[in-house]
Records
---
Amino acid sequence: MNSLNYEAFVLFGQHILWSDMIGNLFGLAALALGWRRSIWTWPVQFLAGLILFGAFFGHLTGSAGKQAVVMVVALYGWWQWQRGKGQSQDGHISVRFATWRERGAMAAAAAAGTVAVALLFKAYPTLSWDPWPDAYIFVGTIVAMYAQARGMVEFWFAWLLVDLVGVPLNFANGYAFSGFVYVIYGALVLWGMRDWWLRSREDARPVLEGAPA
């Protein structure tokens, strides 16, 4: 994995690492597959987490820890989508809006988790260069992936909120390719949000007896 931490090229004065580039390309592919509601989004996300774990491990321990958690949540998502296959009319995972109780629970978990992780990062400065924004991205990513695993349209809103902080943080920490990819994430998130929003209405419609699915 260390061989991937060499410089691939320089773009706009930013040094692009192989691990940063490859890991984020896999992450981008995982998001696109999530948009299409393909179950392969989860193994691709797991692989992206594994590569980025190698990129961050040793000097950005907090970011490496985030990728370890991402891999665990990817396994959970794979399990959830395996169970939910065929629930929608087109044979894929069914998507829906979260209930207000679920939204409140996720918002509370995100807020409490961000404070807890940020305090941990501040107590151990070697874990993160920017404790609060790093904690925000850490916890926000987990909340977004959890919502995705449960087929909630709010998954896209959570990713959009993560992007708003992720872009400047990655550029500031020297991970330029991550920053560029987060910009593309933003465009995919908007398209994916619209697609899942419309599909949530279709999946909510009852199928008439004798009508084609």
---
Amino acid sequence: MKSSAVSRNPVLRVAPASPAAAVAHFSASLAFHADVSDVAAALAADGGDSGGRDGGDRPGFVVVDSRSTESWDQGHVPGAIHLPTAQIPEQAGHLLDRAVPVVTYCWGPGCNGGTRAALALAELGYQVKEMLGGFEYWVREGFEFENWEGRERRAADPLTAPVGAADCGC
């Protein structure tokens, strides 16, 4: 490829990282993030109990919804623990076991509440991951959720989940 073509190409204007740097980056990313499909599969394999202080360590992690009470009432992941970010310093020790990893989430990709909750929990000594896509992608991928009226499920959005397949194959 000619160097003038590379300099005009917005993708290659900054050269890709070396393979070793890419391995380090993407490995670190996976250590900090969980996909909604993976969280749903792990919860389904365990019968839906995400554990917590009294629930043991099934499926090996606990899910924490860091949003407001109004947001929680509108809908949340079944089995999740409601722990708004502002309450983490005072309430985490009562609700969570430090030996059990935590997966946080908020509304969706446009919200960094799950990130702030993960940071607050990490500062308290918890192992933590953030669920990419948050509650928005949980619902958009067609997973069951709970709200103040009970359980609900919406059809999967074909832009976020494969139509007629068990998983996306990622």
